[in-house]
Specification:
Length: about 375
């Protein structure tokens, strides 16, 4: 799947989105980024989505509006208009109502793993939540993600309390920045003392653990993301889990300091090095800074050590392999706008005639305006001193 075209679906007026190895969506709130990503998930995994809903005895009676309310969330049943909406994938028409129909098929293994923006809701007081813990009208992406984390903690980590750091989960070069910039030296453990497994932070020198509500906002946002990455990066020699090929991460920067964002983006490049195709949505210029830098290196003969320098990582055989893969990937950036077509700004050219591209989808626009005002005032002050 390489090109998705949408017309008049929810808040999306017109979109022609080419997908790269890493695809990034930017734009203001409520412009359709999440709708687009959920449609991508539906295109890839619709048999499994219908199976999962049926497994929990959820019946939409083949009604498209009921299915949309179940999948996208309450209130989204009318996002498709039979008269005006259109969805075309690689040149083939794929009307959304068709996905509400039941069809016979063999058992389905997911091809796309979705880490939603609402991921903080997947933990309640540090305890994972199964699919059935949510209302029927809660978005499917959140319920399915939460179910996977529940299975991971209850099954794969059932025999050991340690969640992070773990020597057999994530390479040392990826773990160490997280220890420093996200967890401040604390560890992440499973506490089962109260007959219910809950995730807590543990101080490096021992002592009393810290429960979920004591964590920083960034830690509460990041821990579900970390567990999702554990699902995608199995500890065995297998590079990917099952038949998964795609990863969606919404707003990976939420609550994080720029150094922690860099550490998180290094994990995204690790996904790329394992040949996952990754889609991100973001409101952080930091994310686009990295993509701009990687594309510049690609165009001007950059080396793996240059990539590692961007991330502040030490060069060795393992990190150079990761950096080499980053230089071989394709990057696409699309700007979603309210009441206007989605624009491809992949070149990230600050001198572009396109205002969207020059301002990188609005993410650098404010900094540029501040710089312009400061320069104007500096010139005026200099002129007044010389008068």
């Amino acid at each position: 799947m390489n090109c998705i075209q949408l017309s008049n679906i929810g808040p999306i007026q017109e979109a022609d989105v080419t997908l790269g190895d890493l695809t990034i969506l930017v734009g203001p709130q409520a412009t359709g980024k999440s709708v687009f990503l959920q449609i991508l998930k539906l295109l890839v995994d619709h048999p499994g989505i219908r199976d999962e809903l049926q497994r929990f005895n959820i019946d939409w009676k083949k009604n498209p509006q009921s299915f949309f309310d179940l999948y996208f969330g309450d209130g989204m049943g009318t996002l498709w208009s039979e008269d005006d909406s259109a969805l075309v994938v690689d040149g083939q028409s794929r009307p959304l109502p068709g996905f509400a129909k039941l069809s016979k098929h063999r058992s389905w293994d997911d091809r796309l793993f979705y880490i939603p923006a609402q991921r903080v809701m997947s933990l309640r007081d540090g305890t994972t939540r199964p699919f059935s813990d949510y209302r029927a009208g809660d978005p499917f992406a959140l319920r399915a993600f939460s179910q996977k984390l529940h299975e991971l903690v209850q099954n794969e980590f059932a025999s050991t309390p340690a969640l992070f750091p773990k020597s057999n989960r994530l390479k040392a070069s990826l773990r160490e920045p997280l220890i420093e910039h996200v967890f401040g030296g604390f560890g992440l453990n499973i506490d089962a003392e109260q007959l219910q497994k809950r995730i807590v932070l543990t101080p490096p020198e021992g002592g009393k653990s810290l429960p979920y509500l004591v964590w920083s906002a960034g830690q509460r946002e990041f821990v579900p993301l970390l567990l999702g990455l554990y699902w995608l990066l199995p500890s065995s020699k297998v590079t990917r889990r099952g038949k998964l090929e795609w990863v969606i991460i919404e707003e990976p920067e939420m609550g994080l300091h720029p150094r922690a964002i860099s550490a998180t983006l290094a994990l995204v490049l690790e996904l790329l090095s394992r040949d996952y195709r990754v889609c991100l949505s973001t409101h952080s210029p930091h994310v686009l800074d990295v993509v701009w830098g990687l594309q510049f290196l690609q165009a001007h003969g950059g080396k793996p050590d240059d990539v590692l320098e961007i991330f502040g990582m030490k060069p060795n055989a393992t990190t150079r392999e990761f950096a080499r893969a980053a230089l071989a990937k394709t990057y696409k950036v699309h700007s979603f706008r309210r009441g206007a077509p989605v624009e491809d700004i992949s070149s990230l050219d600050p001198s572009s005639d396109s205002r969207e591209e020059a301002g990188w989808g609005g993410l650098t626009e404010f900094s540029g305006r501040v710089g312009d005002v400061v320069a104007k005032v500096a010139r005026r002050a200099e002129s007044e001193r010389g008068a």
